[in-house]
């Protein structure tokens, strides 16, 4: 949401891509529609891609989402190569749309240890996109913007507030309880910590 808000502020028309990959937190698909409307997206594509057929993650298989706090190791909520797959699809979407600026909301500071959020991954992917696309080899490379990458969650909460975005429209929880966020998964803990440190109200309704 904040990455899209920044793109809009920079003068870009937002063409949003949401991947319905069979995630257990399907509530985020509803949120994506609300966010696309909030940032006045010119286009919002929801693309089905059933990663449950691969499994290998608590988000796509029958594996419990951990609730014991944020650790140092890569957690079981890591979806194999998710951002690699998502960025590849986004480059295809961009090239077909005639766009060359791609925004992704990855974060490498207050995060759960995912390797596909790190700066070196984003930089290497930009080069891969240049080498592997018609536009790239024709001298029209894709620019991968990761404006939230080196922000804390508190910084991101403040940026949402500065941009006038309603944080309640966004969704972070990995293991929702109906329409409510669980409040205890890593993603909920990091979100709560960020808003608390920023001194801002979240608006998310948590279970219990």
Automatic annotation (TrEMBL):
Catalytic reaction(s) noted: 7-carboxy-7-carbaguanine + NH4(+) + 2 ATP = 7-cyano-7-carbaguanine + 2 AMP + 2 diphosphate + 2 H(+)
Short name of one Pfam family: QueC
Record note on cofactor: Binds 1 zinc ion per subunit.
Cofactor(s) this protein requires: Zn(2+)
Any Gene Ontology biological process: tRNA queuosine(34) biosynthetic process
Top-level EC class as recorded in UniProt: ligase
Annotated pathway: Purine metabolism; 7-cyano-7-deazaguanine biosynthesis
GO MF annotation: an example: zinc ion binding
Record keywords: ATP-binding, Ligase, Metal-binding, Nucleotide-binding, Queuosine biosynthesis, Zinc
Entry's EC annotation: 6.3.4.20
Record: residues binding Zn(2+): 173, 182, 185, 188
Function summary: Catalyzes the ATP-dependent conversion of 7-carboxy-7-deazaguanine (CDG) to 7-cyano-7-deazaguanine (preQ(0)).
HAMAP family named among the record's database cross-references: QueC
Similarity annotation: Belongs to the QueC family.
PANTHER family, per database record: 7-CYANO-7-DEAZAGUANINE SYNTHASE (PTHR42914)
NCBIfam families found in the cross-reference section: 7-cyano-7-deazaguanine synthase QueC
Identification of the protein by name: 7-cyano-7-deazaguanine synthase
């Amino acid at each position: 949401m904040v990455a899209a808000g920044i793109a809009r502020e920079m003068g870009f028309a937002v063409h949003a891509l949401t991947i319905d990959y069979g995630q257990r937190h399907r509530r985020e698909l509803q949120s994506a529609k609300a966010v696309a409307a909030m940032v006045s997206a010119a286009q919002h594509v929801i693309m089905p891609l059933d990663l449950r057929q691969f499994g290998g993650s608590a988000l796509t298989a029958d594996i419990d989402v951990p609730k014991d706090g944020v650790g140092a190791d890569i957690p079981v909520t890591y979806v194999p190569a998710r951002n690699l797959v998502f960025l590849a699809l986004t480059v295809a979407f961009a090239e077909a749309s005639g766009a060359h600026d791609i925004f992704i909301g990855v974060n490498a500071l207050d995060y759960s240890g995912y390797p596909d959020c790190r700066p070196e991954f984003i930089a290497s992917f930009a080069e891969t996109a240049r080498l592997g696309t018609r536009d790239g080899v024709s001298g029209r490379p894709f620019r991968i913007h990761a404006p939230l990458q080196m922000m804390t969650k508190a910084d991101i909460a403040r940026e949402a507030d500065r941009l006038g975005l309603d944080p309640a429209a966004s969704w972070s929880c990995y293991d929702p309880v109906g329409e409510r966020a669980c409040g205890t998964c890593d993603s909920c803990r990091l979100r709560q910590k960020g808003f608390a440190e920023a001194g801002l109200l979240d608006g998310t309704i948590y279970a219990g």
